[in-house]
Each structure stands twice: as C-alpha cells, then as structure tokens.
Amino acid sequence: MHTLRNGWGILLIMVGVLSACATTQSLQQVAQMNQDEASRLERAGHLRDALERWKIIMTIDPQYPGASQKKTEIEAKIKEQSPRHVAAGKELLQRREKQGAQRELLAALRLDPMNREALELLYQSEQQLGEQTAFARPLRKGGIEPKSVDAKPSPAEEAEEEETGEEVSFAEAAEVFRRGDYLAAIDAFSRVLAQQPGLREAVEYQKLAYYNQGVAYVGKGNYAEAMKMFERLRRIQPDFKRLGHYMQVVREKLADQHYLAGIRHYKEQRLREAIEEWNQALALNPRLESAKRHQEQARKLLKRLEEIK
C-alpha cells in the first residue's frame, strides 16, 4: 500500500510538471498572438485597441521583450493625435461642416474616450438638447415655476426645500450636468422628472448623463460600472447614437478581464476557477477563441487529475 501511495504521488507530481510546462508554452503563444494583433491594429491606425493588446501582453508577462517600450510609444502617439482631431473637428464645426466635424471628433474619442472637449463638441454637432426653450425653466413641486432663474425663493420655499431635500429645478440639474458630475446629474434629473414626468429636455439630459458617465468609466477601465450605465440608457433609448458600439466594446473588455483572470487561475493550477472565468468570458464574447482553447485544455487536465484521485 505504501508503494502504491508513493506511485500515485509521483504521478501527481509528473502531471503538475506537465501542466506547468503546458501553461508556460500556452501563455507564450497567447502573448505572441496578441503581439501580432497589436501590430496589425497599429498599422490600421487603431492605436487605442493596439495599446489594449500590449496591456494584455504585459499582464501575461510583465517582462515580455519590448512590451513596455511599445506601450509608451503608442501612448505618446495617442497623446499627440487626439488633440489634433479635436482641433480639426472644432474648425469644421465653425464652418458648419457637420459630417466632417463628427468624423474628426469620433476619431479623437476612439483614441481617448475621456476627451471631454470632444464629447461636448460632438453633442453640439447633434444639437440634441432644446436648451433655448427649457434651460431657464426651474421646476417646483406641483409644476409651480418661479418668474425667472435668478429670482430668489421666498423664505417659505427655502424652508420647504431644506425640510424635504428632494426638490431640484431643471436649471439646477442642468448646471450639475455642465460641471461634469454626471452621477449627480442622473439623480438630479430623476428628481426633476418625478416632479414633471415626461419633460423632454430633462429626459435628453439624463440620457446624455448616462452616456457620459458610461464613457468615463470606459476611460478608467471600470467596465462593469460602464455596462450598468449603458444598460440603463438602453432601456430608455435602445438606438442612442454609438450606444451599441460602446456596449460591444465594454462586453469585449469584460470578456478580456475574465479571460486574463482565467489565465491567472490556470497558472496557479486552480482549474475549476479558471474554467468558470472562461465561461463568463465566452458568455460576453463567444468569438473569444483563445478562451475556448484554454477552457478545453483545462477541462481535459482536470479530468485526468480526477481520474488519478
């Protein structure tokens, strides 16, 4: 019996060694595939996507030859090219060449999703908001409107606001939006709409707040929160401009995160956790062939280990 136990122990060690070798070889192949794709994307001018590929490579292997230098080079190109597109878009807007301006602004946003100036100019080009008719119409409970935006509320009104803490005027909510505090703007416009349901301008601002906040989360790499914002916007307007594009980007980014988490588990020989991460990756992006291959490999290895036990 002692000899048998020793035999099983040796076999388990051999399987572990083979697994480690297979993992190292597999990760090298993944890194090479991402390098090839990064080079293709850079040649095609898709610098942001190329940069993401290099980040994946450095996650797999922080010492990968040339990865750090290449990442720095692409980041410098993005920093140089994005403002040029914004300037070109601004000039075209001044000449009222809407389509050309939008092409330049969208090019800037593809390079830098956090470029707030490009976002604001893009919205201007669409003229989505009826600000001239609505911005100066603060709303109160019961639909009562003050005479002007600058008019001070009466002491009774001030006391009522302090007591409830719930009333927000359209102008106040719009000002929150203009400051770029989009999460607060979402809440503010929800309160406005509670006071006057269906107010078109408030709905439009709220949709833009969801969109802006989602794009901001994308720029920070917080894809889970970005998806929440985009899902809420989709429930209001499924065909909102470029929403489908950003949701697809976020799904792919989340899939990549689960894929890399699976690789980390696989390297640590936590096969069940790796398989579950790759399941989630494929649910988000069924075309992620590398996740399919690794998942199959992990399942086969797990089956061999369970047979030994």
Summarize the entry for a quick read.
The protein has 309 residues and is mainly α. Helices cover 78% and strands 0% of the residues.
Task: Describe what you observe in this structure.
- The chain has 14 helices and no strands.
- It is mostly helical and 309 residues long.
- The two termini are 15 Å apart.
Topology:
Elements (H helix, E strand, L loop, with lengths): L1 H42 L3 H14 L6 H28 L3 H14 L4 H11 L4 H4 L20 H10 L5 H9 L3 H14 L4 H21 L2 H14 L6 H25 L3 H14 L4 H20 L1
Overall structural class, as computed from helix and strand content, comes to mainly alpha
Distance between the termini: 15 Å
> Which percent range fits the helix content?
over 70%
Radius of gyration from the alpha-carbon trace, in angstroms: 26 Å
Given as residue ranges, the uncertain stretches (5+ residues, pLDDT < 50) are 1-15, 17-22, 127-165
For the largest beta-sheet, the strand count, sense and barrel status come to:
none
* Molecular shape: globular
Strand percentage, roughly? Answer: under 5%
> Secondary-structure element sequence?
HHHHHHHHHHHHHH
Question: What is the residue-mean pLDDT, rounded to a whole number?
Answer: 75
Q: Give me the number of helical elements.
A: 14
Q: What is the strand tally?
A: 0
Structure keywords:
309 residues, mainly alpha, globular, disordered N terminus
